[in-house]
């Protein structure tokens, strides 16, 4: 038997040829990924603005109720196996084929589980429309299971161009489907149609882009360690997902779909800039930190720069979010979403601390402290749920304020404690110079709120106030950025990354 017959698709699994131009591939991939993220951000921003005017908050609330459950169940269909394929130094056709069929089998089982949960979800939320929505969402699981290993192989081969093309085409198909259905009067089904179109389009495009085709499942092919690796990753991520979606579940249970839609839109808008930036930044930052984890001073230096830059960018966004919340919601979502302005103002401070929290999690991961990540995720979920329950007794706005306040004063410091206790990082590394931005942002916010509501009594959206508040924030912020030498730190960070990349 020839070597080609013994090892089919060998060229797809081999990564030796990538080392010759690894640095150039990384730079091109980073540029493509950042560009794609910018395009997707604009598409997401515009689509949300359009759909917010074509649909009502309750439509978004219905989808949020279903996705809080289906998203949690969906975490099991991957089981961390795509990451196992990506990270293994050597892998063969039999192993990937076996992992493929495990992913497909898990997806099929989870599809049946979600479908079986449809009646219970409708009963729990006192909303019969959730039954049909959940059944349709369940059907999308099988399409996801069919693509996981193909996507992992595309990433393994660093085919960033193909991945970006798939991502953007899928996003365009998704938003086009949703807007067309909403214009035609399908209501909340237009949001369901977006999910179906995304799953089908992504599956078709991935199979077109990847030449690999799975073989049969093979016993004893050496996938045991990969299953263990994937299982650990899956368990570690469950509580983090619960933390993100537990507020929606609790609000939906006690207040209904309308308030869920308001909270969901406000929270997503709050974290949208950070969520769009974190993925492409992580693709560079995490490998750099992994390579220098045995050099404490260099490691701490990169982390300090990342945190300082994150605060310098996100804190002024949080300040503006609080001061001009009514204007932003009025322009972005429309007049019927006016109640979301108060929620957005309450949640906006999280945009500042969440940026540091993301970097703190990267620090724990890259230093091998996955157990600390898991321990914190448990506390994070408990505190998030407790904060929402505490505030719900006094209304939706109180729940948002409680969630934000406990996040700022309890959850974030607790994460920093884990970082300081388990790694070479120290408190000054986390809150040294970044504290200038945090204190400055707090003072600007307090002064602006007093001026708006106690002196000028501007309760309704005002273009003049919005422009003035943003201009003053920029004028005050520029000296802080100069004092913190933010541009210098950005260039130093770029130099650190370049020197940490492997040479050809």
Polypeptide structure, described:
With 504 residues, the chain is mainly α. The chain has two domains: 222 residues, no CATH class; 253 residues, no CATH class. It is built from 23 helices and no strands. Helix 4 packs antiparallel against helix 6 and helix 10 runs antiparallel to helix 11.
Number of domains: 2
Report the C-alpha radius of gyration, rounded: 24 Å
Give, in order, the helices and strands: HHHHHHHHHHHHHHHHHHHHHHH
Distance between the termini: 35 Å
Using the alpha-carbon principal axes, give the shape.
Answer: globular
Count of helix runs: 23
Assign the structural class, choosing from mainly alpha, mainly beta, alpha/beta, alpha+beta, or little secondary structure: mainly alpha
**Main beta sheet strand tally, sense and closure:** none
Binned, the helix content reads over 70%
Please indicate the percent range of residues in DSSP E strands (runs of 2 or more). under 5%
Summarize it.
This protein is mostly helical and 504 residues long.
Write the layout of secondary structure elements.
Blueprint: H1 3-6, H2 10-13, H3 22-54, H4 57-78, H5 81-87, H6 93-124, H7 129-139, H8 141-145, H9 148-156, H10 160-183, H11 189-209, H12 224-255, H13 257-291, H14 296-323, H15 325-332, H16 340-347, H17 350-366, H18 370-392, H19 396-422, H20 427-431, H21 434-455, H22 463-483, H23 486-500
């Amino acid at each position: 038997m020839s070597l080609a017959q013994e090892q089919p698709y060998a060229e797809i699994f081999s990564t030796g040829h990538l080392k010759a131009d690894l640095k150039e591939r990384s730079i091109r991939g980073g540029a493509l990924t950042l560009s794609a993220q910018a395009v997707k951000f604009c598409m997401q921003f515009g689509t949300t603005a359009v759909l917010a005017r074509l649909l009502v908050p309750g439509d978004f609330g219905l989808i949020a109720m279903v996705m809080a459950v289906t998203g949690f169940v969906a975490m099991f269909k991957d089981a961390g196996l795509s990451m196992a394929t990506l990270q293994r130094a050597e892998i063969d056709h039999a192993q990937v084929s076996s992992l493929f069929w495990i992913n497909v089998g898990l997806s099929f089982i989870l599809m049946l589980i979600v479908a079986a949960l449809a009646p219970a979800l409708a009963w729990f939320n006192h909303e019969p429309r959730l039954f049909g929505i959940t059944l349709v969402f369940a059907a999308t699981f099988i399409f996801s299971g069919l693509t996981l290993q193909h996507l992992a192989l595309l990433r393994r081969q660093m085919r960033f161009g193909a991945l970006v093309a798939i991502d953007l085409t899928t996003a365009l198909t998704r938003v086009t489907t949703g807007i067309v259905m909403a214009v035609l009067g399908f209501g909340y089904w237009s949001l369901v149609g977006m999910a179906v179109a995304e799953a089908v389009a992504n599956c078709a495009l991935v199979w077109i882009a990847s030449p690999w085709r799975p073989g049969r499942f093979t016993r004893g092919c050496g996938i045991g360690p990969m299953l263990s690796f994937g299982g650990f990753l899956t368990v570690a991520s469950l509580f983090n997902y619960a933390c993100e979606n537990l507020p929606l579940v609790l609000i939906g249970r006690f207040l209904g779909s309308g308030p869920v839609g308001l909270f969901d839109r406000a929270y997503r808008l709050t974290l949208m800039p950070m969520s769009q930036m974190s993925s492409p930044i992580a693709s560079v930052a995490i490998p750099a930190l992994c390579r220098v984890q045995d050099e404490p001073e260099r490691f701490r230096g990169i982390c300090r720069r990342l945190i300082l830059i994150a605060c310098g960018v996100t804190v002024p966004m949080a300040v503006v979010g609080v001061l001009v919340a009514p204007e932003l919601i009025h322009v972005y979502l429309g007049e019927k979403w006016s109640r979301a302005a108060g929620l957005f103002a309450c949640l906006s401070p999280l945009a500042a601390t969440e940026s540091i929290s993301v970097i703190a999690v990267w620090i724990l991961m890259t230093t091998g402290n996955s157990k600390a990540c898991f321990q914190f995720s448990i506390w994070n979920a408990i505190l998030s749920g407790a904060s929402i329950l505490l505030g719900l007794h006094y209304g939706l706005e109180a729940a948002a304020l409680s969630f934000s306040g406990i996040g700022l004063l309890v959850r974030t410091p607790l994460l920093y404690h884990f970082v300081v206790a388990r790694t070479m990082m120290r408190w000054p590394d986390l809150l040294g110079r970044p504290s200038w931005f945090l204190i400055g942002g707090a003072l600007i916010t307090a002064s602006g709120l007093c001026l708006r509501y106690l002196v000028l009594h501007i309760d309704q959206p005002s273009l003049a106030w919005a422009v003035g508040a943003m201009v003053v924030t920029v004028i005050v912020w520029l000296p802080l950025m100069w004092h913190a030498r933010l541009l210098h730190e950005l260039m130093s960070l770029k130099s650190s990354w370049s020197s940490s990349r492997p040479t050809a």
